């Protein structure tokens, strides 16, 4: 069957054509970045630090998921916990089980679960995107809460006639994904439609000897040793990540009026490690996420250079995951978020811009219950049904762009402020300011100061589990998180084919919300509650270098160094104990006529990891250290009648990448479990 699928796809490719994007370095550097400002600007002018994964890079290294593309960037990682997968981090600031510190946007429309605050990466296939933009650093002035340490914007393709079909096959493990997109334009309407589905390979969860140290032998068994559901001491886990998504973007423009409509729906299923890792405690059962967002942004030009827009969006996210109470009980989270706003953009002059806006969000927990998955019967309500919080904000920005004047001045200045009112907390005012000095058209120096704010999620405020001792409890006394940062950046393109972005930053984080033991001295009560931690800080260096010459090849180097303190230390555990100080990724690609090759290498620095514990949870000295780890990919592509065939060997060294289990410390380490795989990919136009 696998061979038949490959033959059919190869036949289709011989009668079709694929769109191939061979962007020059100048084209890439002139892309108008949307995530960092209401006025799209190129990378030298934009008032924030932004990294971009463009469609050429996605194709060169055959990125088949958002996490692969994001891990390529400096200062960005995608990790996991025992509850959740694909948790992005920026500059080492760890998430809880839910991605509520980095905002996820699709064409500038934010989406996240109103109960947990968590945004989802797996909402669109990277090959259906024009690019992925990552804003690194505080973004609350731009976007409000949940853009605490940054934002990720998935930018859809917009050029008319960009129609393609793509598929990725893992023959050895029966994994397959298929998808595609269509774009078009009439006199008054342009459209984008995409959809994709993925049935991933089933990979046994495989722990190394270091991971199982100090754990009871036999917690994770191979398939042959698994004795069925009656054996409560073992668990066999086939890990997987399945996903389906659909996206529709419509844009209508008529003289002085414009309207954008976005619809995105997704349904994802993943394996669940469970805690404790025992088969009758939920281990190995599927966790599911689904939802949709509808966004409408009408805009009208009222006066010359004065545009008024009224963005509105409705965001629905549902998550189900197993509990430690067995296969017949699941937690179901249903959150809805209604966001409305008013935004005024006024270009007083070509070089002076004003932005003024108002935003209102109503976040509701429709459901957070323990249910019987067989019939949906409610078993427990968890103090969450009907909980809601309203948050409003007023924001403004003013920009002066001296390089746009007739008599050019070599600098630009942006000042921004947002005042937030949340009915549960005191008001907050956050500021941002950026000075950009243009050394030339292809060189700039940036000095940035930013503040950020994140209000606690409904889950962090209200959750209770009256039927369980060892659970997490919300805390209505918990305060919002805030931060301050300063960034210095130098950007330079030289000799036509080279680009470098070098950055130094320092950040101070206050009141980070974390889990702490309610009864620290108890060996039977392991329950936790959300509390605010003490202030801590970090500083770091990020380097991005790119060489792109269509005749010779491309080379990418992304490096990050982080130094964080232990100001938030509780019981020998603190954020930067679990973060590698150094990460590096490098890529090399070359074309030989219709043949292309690329190599991708990643280095993940050493991590101290969890303190060692005895069977009663008491510290016994030492740490579950993780040494420096290495991963490499090899890709070979061939263009046949403008159809791109690619064979990739991902993780060619079969490394089992370890990450600390940083939330509860129940297990010393986890693994990505993304072992060596061979992927055949094909992309062609419809």
UniProtKB/TrEMBL annotation:
Domain TonB-dependent receptor-like beta-barrel residues, every copy: 204-651
Keyword Transmembrane among UniProt keywords: yes
Annotated protein name in UniProt: Outer membrane receptor proteins, mostly Fe transport
Domain spans labelled TonB-dependent receptor plug: 44-150
Coiled coil (residue ranges): none
Organism: Pseudobacteriovorax antillogorgiicola
BP-aspect Gene Ontology terms: siderophore transmembrane transport
A GO CC annotation given for this chain: cell outer membrane
Family membership: Belongs to the TonB-dependent receptor family.
Topology within the bilayer: Multi-pass membrane protein
Signal peptide interval: 1-18
Gene Ontology MF: a single term: siderophore uptake transmembrane transporter activity
Location of this chain's protein in the cell: Cell outer membrane
Pfam family, one: TonB_dep_Rec_b-barrel
């Amino acid at each position: 069957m696998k061979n038949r699928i490959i033959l059919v796809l190869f036949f289709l490719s011989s009668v079709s054509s694929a769109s191939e994007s061979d962007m020059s370095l100048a084209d890439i550097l002139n892309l108008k970045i949307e995530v960092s400002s209401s006025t799209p600007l190129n990378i030298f002018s934009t008032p924030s630090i932004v990294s971009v994964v463009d469609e050429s890079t996605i194709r060169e290294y055959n990125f088949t998921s958002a996490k692969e593309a994001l891990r390529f960037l400096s200062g960005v990682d995608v990790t996991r916990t025992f509850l959740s997968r694909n948790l992005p981090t920026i500059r080492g600031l760890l998430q809880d089980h839910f991605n509520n510190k980095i905002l996820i946007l699709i064409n500038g429309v934010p989406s996240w679960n109103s109960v947990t605050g968590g945004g989802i990466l797996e909402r669109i296939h990277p090959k259906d995107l024009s690019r992925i933009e990552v804003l690194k650093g505080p973004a609350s002035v731009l976007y409000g809460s949940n853009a605490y340490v940054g934002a990720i914007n998935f930018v859809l393709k917009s050029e008319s006639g960009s129609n393609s079909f793509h598929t990725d096959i893992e023959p050895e493990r029966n994994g397959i994904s298929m998808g595609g997109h269509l774009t078009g334009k009439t006199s008054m309407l342009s459209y984008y439609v995409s959809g994709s589905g993925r049935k991933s390979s089933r990979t046994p969860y495989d722990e190394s000897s270091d991971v199982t140290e100090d754990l009871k032998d036999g917690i994770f068994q191979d398939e042959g040793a698994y004795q069925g559901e009656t054996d409560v001491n073992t668990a066999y886990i086939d890990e997987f990540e399945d996903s389906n998504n659909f996206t529709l973007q419509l844009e209508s423009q008529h003289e002085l009026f414009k309207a954008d409509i976005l619809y995105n729906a997704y349904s994802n299923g993943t394996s669940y490690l469970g805690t404790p890792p025992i088969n009758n405690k939920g281990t190995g059962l599927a966790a599911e996420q689904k939802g949709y967002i509808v966004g409408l942004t009408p805009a009208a030009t009222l006066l010359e250079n004065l545009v008024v827009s009224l963005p509105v969006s409705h965001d629905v996210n549902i998550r189900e995951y197993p509990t430690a109470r067995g296969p017949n009980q699941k937690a179901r989270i249903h959150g809805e978020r209604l966001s409305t706003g008013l935004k005024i953009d006024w270009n007083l002059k070509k070089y002076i811009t004003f932005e003024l806006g108002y935003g209102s969000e109503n976040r509701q927990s429709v459901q957070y219950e323990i249910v019987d998955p067989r019939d949906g019967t409610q078993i427990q309500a968890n103090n969450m049904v009907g909980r809601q919080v309203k948050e409003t904000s007023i924001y403004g920005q003013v920009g002066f762009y001296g390089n746009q004047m007739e008599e050019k001045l070599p600098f630009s200045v942006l000042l921004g402020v947002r005042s937030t009112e949340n009915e549960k907390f005191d008001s907050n005012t956050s500021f941002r300011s950026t000075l950009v000095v243009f050394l030339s058209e292809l060189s700039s120096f940036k000095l940035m100061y930013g503040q950020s704010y994140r209000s606690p999620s409904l889950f962090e405020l209200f959750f209770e589990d009256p039927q369980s001792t060892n659970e997490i409890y919300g805390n209505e006394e918990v305060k919002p998180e805030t931060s301050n940062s300063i960034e210095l950046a130098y950007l330079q393109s030289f000799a036509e084919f080279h680009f470098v972005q070098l950055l130094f930053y320092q950040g101070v984080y206050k009141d980070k919300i974390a889990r702490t033991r309610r009864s620290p001295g108890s060996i039977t009560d392991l329950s936790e509650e959300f509390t605010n931690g003490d202030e801590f800080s970090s500083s770091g260096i990020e380097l991005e270098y790119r060489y792109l010459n269509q005749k010779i090849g491309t080379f990418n180097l992304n490096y990050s160094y982080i130094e964080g303190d232990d100001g938030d230390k509780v019981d020998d555990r603190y954020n930067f104990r679990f973060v590698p100080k150094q990460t590096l990724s490098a890529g090399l690609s070359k074309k030989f006529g219709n043949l292309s090759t690329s190599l991708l290498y990643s280095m993940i620095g050493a991590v101290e990891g969890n303190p060692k514990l005895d069977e009663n949870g008491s510290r016994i000295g030492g740490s579950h250290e993780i040494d420096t780890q290495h991963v490499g990919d090899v890709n070979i592509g061939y263009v046949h009648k403008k159809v791109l065939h690619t064979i990739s060997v991902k993780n060619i060294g079969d490394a089992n990448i370890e990450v600390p289990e940083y939330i509860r410390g129940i297990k010393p380490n986890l693994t990505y479990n993304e072992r060596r795989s061979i992927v055949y990919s094909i992309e062609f136009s419809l």
